[in-house]
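I'd like us to work through together how a protein chain folds, taking it slowly. We need material for that, and I hope you will provide a protein of your own picking. Go ahead whenever you are ready, and we will take it from there:
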Amino acid sequence: MTSEDKLWNSDYIKVWSANFMIFFSFMIVMPLLPLYLSEEFGANRHTIGIVLSGYTITALLIRPFSGYLVDTLPRRVVLLTSYFFFFFLFAGYIVATSLTLFAIFRTLHGAPMGTVTVANSTVAIDVLPSSRRAEGIGYYGLSNNLATAIAPTVGLLIYQYLHSYNLIFTTALIASGLGLLINSTVRMKPRPAVTGKQPLSLDRFLLLKGWSQGTTLACLSFSYGVLSTYLAIYGKEELGITKGTGLFFAILCIGLMASRLIGVHTLRQGRVLWNCTIGMTISLFGYLLFAALPTSVGYYGSALIIGLGNGHMFPAMQNMFINLAPASQRGTANSTLLTAWDVGIGLGILFGGVVAQWSGYHGAFWMAWAVNAAGVIFFYLYAAGRYRQDCLIKAQ
């Protein structure tokens, strides 16, 4: 293996670390926001769902434009500018003194989050050697998983022992600032200008070939949006689990990391559909366990199963989007992937809050499982075959 084929080169490590900081900042606050809105502002379940969905809706609206910007403008400029605003807006959480003001800052925050995740993941693909790309995409997600394992635990410890939301928000601000500094040192190769297409054509904003994969992914993320958002408050109110949310995310991420480490070997062999199918099926059983068994066994057992499933599914799905796109549309492919994920998350948060308000959290979790099952069935019956056909057409 030559130095050019080295997977863990210095720039990839930097981008990987900066991605960890993005998701550490995001996940240290996310599980506690329903409690924060309830305790500090007296918000009910429906209001919590509306306030929190604003972030995801804004990220969703900016995603397609993010892909276009990443593919047409200098990626360093897009990456560092979006990372700066992602860092800066955490300060808004600290100074917000009313529910309305917090909702405004939270909603605005979705825009840089939507852009920086597209830009960072695209730069990660750029700095990977082409021979290690599928494998590198799999390992890249480990930064998300580590952050998801560590950050909620840190946030919940601060909440339990110091009960200081401002300290939690300050920690997120510092972590995102560190990620910005790391990314400022990444070396990015100049890219040739994109030619031969109308700059504002629809396929510059969305990878149209990936619509069936995007539909599947939105169904899968819908269930995760419900679960991750209402997990802490459900555990506290329904199961009496006041200190176990951090453990849930830790177990989830053990499953995610284990399956990613296993899955990179089959991704290296090109078995993308196999990874995706196995992952979705495993996750489906995890959501069923969570909904059907409202006990600590179901609570923690589902975390491991969902982690094992999603760790196989998500990197495989990302490889599918990248494989369908030409090299000049990597940003568009990544933005379409994350747009689909955001659609599901946002709808899950919104409808989860509505259903929880009228029929309780159990109804919301059963709804999450049903939507997940619909996505898996759609993939089995249509999306997998469509992907095979599109890859054959691209290869001709």
Notes: The radius of gyration is 20 Å. The CA atoms of residues 164 and 248 lie 21 Å apart. The chain has a mean pLDDT of 86.
